[in-house]
Description:
About 55% of the residues lie in helices and about 0% in strands. It has about 45 residues and is an all-alpha fold. The model has no long low-confidence stretch (mean pLDDT about 75).
Amino acid sequence: MENSDQDTYSEAETMARREAALKNMLATPHKPQKDSKKGGKESQSK
């Protein structure tokens, strides 16, 4: 499968996308794992 020009980014755009993704990741607040689990022990024991 060939890479078209649409699928490849310039070095500058690659760096900009990487920086944007990193900033977004670091700006997202931490969510404790216990809060992200669905159907914990409480719901199973009912």
